[in-house]
Amino acid sequence: MQEIIKPLIQKNNTKIIFAVLDGLGGFPVDGKTELETAATPHMDALARISACGLHTPVGPGITPGSGPGHLALFGYDPVACQIGRGVLEALGLGMEVRKTDITVRCNYATIRDGVIVDRRAGRIPTAQSKKVTAKLQKAIAKIDNVHVLIAPGMEHRFAVRFRFPEKLPHDAADIPDTDPQREGLAPLPPKARSKNAERVVGILHQFLAQAADVLKNEEKANFLLMRGFSGMPDIPMFGEAYGLKALAIATYPMYRGLARLIDMEAPIIEGGLSDQLLFLKKNWENYDFFFLHVKKIDSYGEDGNFAEKTARIEEFDAVLPEILGMNPDVLVITGDHSTPAAMKGHSWHPVPVLIKGPYVYGGFCNSFTERQCHGGELGVFPSIHIMPIALANALRLKKFGA
Amino acid sequence: MQEIIKPLIQKNNTKIIFAVLDGLGGFPVDGKTELETAATPHMDALARISACGLHTPVGPGITPGSGPGHLALFGYDPVACQIGRGVLEALGLGMEVRKTDITVRCNYATIRDGVIVDRRAGRIPTAQSKKVTAKLQKAIAKIDNVHVLIAPGMEHRFAVRFRFPEKLPHDAADIPDTDPQREGLAPLPPKARSKNAERVVGILHQFLAQAADVLKNEEKANFLLMRGFSGMPDIPMFGEAYGLKALAIATYPMYRGLARLIDMEAPIIEGGLSDQLLFLKKNWENYDFFFLHVKKIDSYGEDGNFAEKTARIEEFDAVLPEILGMNPDVLVITGDHSTPAAMKGHSWHPVPVLIKGPYVYGGFCNSFTERQCHGGELGVFPSIHIMPIALANALRLKKFGA
Q1: Which is nearest to A32 in space by CA: A299, A377, A353, A372?
Q2: Each residue of B55-81: pLDDT tens digit?
Q3: In this complex, do A390 and B349 lie within 8 Å of one another by their Cβ atoms?
Q4: Whether residue A147 is found in the same domain as residue A286
Q5: CB of B303 closer than 8 Å to CB of B32
Q6: A391 interaction partners in chain B (CB closer than 8 Å)
Q7: Cross-chain Cβ contact B349/A359 below 8 Å
Q8: Which tens digits make up the pLDDT trace of B277-295?
């Protein structure tokens, strides 16, 4: 799809707001989904004049993670473009990642006599984790000719980036997790699953030995477990693919990471929805495309909290007039996947989407809900179609063929 | 798709009429599209008993040109089968094109002191252009062992076919336009972008030098600009692919050209819709498949003339009883793309289609409009699915697998 589109791209001054309400889609409890329960007068009004539908990020029946969910929204085939968790985590923690890097997510863990007794080191406080990480970084800056960068995350989580002097082959990160996923077992030693991963595994053995020495006297964080080894994927950059200058407005590291992966600007911002909107307004003149990520809807879905998920949808609806006040040429409102409170997690259910633009028909839906969107003019369709429809409505695509 | 179908083809005596109302799909003005505004009692009655839907020729958000639009209708993947403008133009002007030919669209232009002062030579009258072209053809019939055929088009337009003695490699036409697209610049010399194009470019240099000499004393048409170098694409022929003897009934060169490209018979016919129907009746016994191309609906869409586009849709509706009177086994009514008067050009909006056949459900739509077709039994689907559905209704496809 991106290959077809690339030669058709034309630039103009239109602006696109792409609001991702994380985990938006739901499932009925007592007959109504979260969206059907929420009072959303502004989204309902928009749905009546917008192109609506339900999109499937990966495929029917497939529950997407946040990575594939977002990539599909941005027009990337989520099966062809699989992004490692290590890269996402590293980018999310503000690390710059290059094609010469291998990244990995880590947990501090507690071991006794070589056996894991707590995979999360008692969820040590973030402040404590920061101190330990600084110590680790100070002791291990370089192994052979490989630079090591370590960044603390929340509680027991952190990420490590190994920067090699040369570009790495595509399967250099083909290394299973060292986390056995259960307490009472020993951590697994790093192992190469491909010839090209052997060089990386050599560095990992040295890293683990040095880290174990640095951590040995910590009470809880006296070891570390590694998951999601990954290198930078070889995918087109968003700006290049679509001719758009894009800004990500996301308060959670993971989503900034996703944005940076495709070279969107994603400055660190904190706070709630109102802070995000302030940031949107401040940067309005300097970008063409605004990826506005709204996290809390998903979080309450994951918690199984139907009422709070509903309330967070209403919270977004309440600020919608402010967003419309910016007069974007195209406004997309959708989610990266469904997170039904009834299922306490992501699900495979197609995700409602609404595209407001100057060249949509409208008139198909009465409100913005899963069931109404099913009858919308977009029908049920793969998520990667959203970007071309948004670009078309912004008149940013030329004709294909003569 | 064609590969799956080919072994399933069976012949019988059924007849299929495939009416392409060029640029049929529209966009609402004051709440109603052209089709919604037009009084089309016959199409509406048909829609109630037909399989209806909306088709996307290339993909969601992608605005198709006429070439890809038609190829998709005929079941050819328009991305895999990209046809050069030169070939389309040559075929449209009645030239036969083979795999040993390179074709190109040309404009007569006016140059002074080596600089283009008019890219269209004052849009010289067609009669005048014919005379100049005859002179050119007389002077240049052969260059080395390459036969040169030159055909006049409308006003300043013409096409040239270079027939080489041998089959040309696929990239032999990889040559940029010599038309710099702006006045005040010099024409660009032909340049080979691939090794295989060098042989062609050698001939082009000689052609241009000889042509410049022939034209030098013309007042306006004293030079020529070349665009859209292309060779014959390597695609299956329609008759072979589907086991159908096909007749194109098209009054415009471009659409006859498209038909000839896939080896449909496409005799030159002139006049309006009634002449086309007369021609259809006269040839009824001799063909299985009739591609009836109706141009004016698109033309008025391109002009932004909502009322006239609507009137031309009504004009077609008025002759529909005559078409039904032929008792085709399958009748398809659709467009090759949308051309909303509101947008004065092609657009990406899915195109309404109606398939009347003995084995469609019907009962989904009240009238033949974009919004009604949305709820039709075909839904929104890729255009390349139309041919198999038409063939199936004509009982021309055997079972797949045992």
Answers
A1: A372
A2: 999 999 999 999 999 999 999 999 999
A3: no
A4: no
A5: no
A6: 61
A7: yes
A8: 999 999 999 999 999 999 9
- Taking any CB pair shorter than 8 Å as contact, residues of chain B touching chain A are 27-28, 58-69, 78-79, 82-83, 85, 88, 228, 340, 343, 345-349, 370-371, 374, 379-380
- What is the overall mean pLDDT for chain A? 96
* Overall number of domains in chain A: 2
For the whole model, what pTM was predicted? 0.88
Report how many Cβ contacts below 8 Å link chain A to chain B. Answer: 80
State whether B78 and B120 are in the same domain.
Answer: no
Q: Which of A132, A124, A170, A166 is nearest to A147 (CA)?
A: A166
- In A, what residues contact B, Cβ < 8 A? 1, 4-5, 8, 359, 361, 363-364, 377-379, 381, 385, 387-392, 397-402
**Could you list the residue range(s) of the whole structural domain that residue A259 is in?**
2-83+236-393
Which residues sit opposite A355 in a β-bridge?
A51, A332
Using CA atoms, how far apart are residues A400 and A397, in angstroms rounded to an integer? 9
User: Residue A261 sits in a domain of what CATH number?
Assistant: 3.40.720.10
Does residue B402 fall inside a structural domain?
A: no
Residue partners of A199: CB distance under 8 A and separation at least 6 = A164, A172
B183 and B94 in a single domain? The answer is yes
Q: Where are the alpha helices (DSSP H) in A24-96?
A: 34-37, 41-49, 66-73, 85-92
Q: How far is CA A263 from CA A241, A248, A304, A331, B200, in A?
A: 11, 10, 34, 21, 42
Q: What is the pLDDT of residue B88?
A: 83
